[in-house]
Every structure is written in structure tokens, then in C-alpha cells.
Amino acid sequence: MPTATDVSVEGALVASTFERLYEALRRLTPRDGLSLTAASTLRRLQRHGPHRLCALHLAEGVTQPAMTQLVTRLERDGLATRGPDPVDRRVVVVTITEAGRALVEQRRARYTTALADVLDGLAAPDRAAIMAALQAMERLAEVITE
């Protein structure tokens, strides 16, 4: 069984690697004027369906006024709509539009191509190790986002 020190060291290594990976992946992010938070919000709406505005701000880790401004921009750009919740009309619900879905898919395709090019430059054992680690990383992401 790992000790608290072992887990602490592992946590520091994972954090450091994820920080470097995040910085590296930002360089591959399509330059289309969409902020990282806007892109994340659209992906969330695409994956999980309509969200209450208050749930979006909590899920994305921004203030409610910041999310309200972001949704206003997404709405202005035709990427999302907002309207009343059918159950509680006092509540605002945000929904991705077809244009928003198309943009998410275009970004994903460009991002996938860029990552494939990077992976192609790695040695086969490194690619295999990355692929083997993906399931555990996905579980980690699920635990973090629950």
C-alpha cells in the first residue's frame, strides 16, 4: 500500500506533467477567436445537453457574471441560445445551436490532426505507453469532474 509520501510525490508528478501538457496542448488549439472557456462550454453543451446558466458557471469554474457575458457572446455569434427552463420559467437554460455543434466538430478535427502529427513524430514505444495510459487518465478526469 502506498504511503502518504508516495501519493504526495505522485500527485506532484502528475500535476507537473499535466501543467506542461496543458501548455503544450494550448499551442495546438485552433486560433479561431474562441476562448478556452467558450470552447469548453460549447463542448459541455454538446456532450451533456442544455444546462442551466448557474450550473454552467459552476462547471466551468467562472463567476456567474462572467458566464452570463460568455453566453451573451455565444448567443450573439449564433453558437448557443438561452431560454426559460420548461419546468421553472424563472431559470435560464443554455442550449448549443447547430452552428455551435459544427464549430466544436471543426475544432476537434483540427485538434485531432495536429495531435496525430505530433504522435507520428514519437517513437512507437512512447505512443504505445501513451495509449496504455489513456484509460487511467480518463478515469482520473471522471473523478476530478464528478
TrEMBL record:
Keywords, in A-Z order: DNA-binding
Superkingdom of the organism of origin: Bacteria
MF-aspect GO terms: DNA binding; DNA-binding transcription factor activity
Domain annotation HTH marR-type: ranges: 1-139
Entry annotated with the keyword Oxidoreductase: no
SMART domains tied to this protein: HTH_MARR
Alphabetical list of PROSITE patterns matching this protein: HTH_MARR_2
Record's protein name: DNA-binding transcriptional regulator, MarR family
Organism from which the protein derives: Actinoplanes regularis
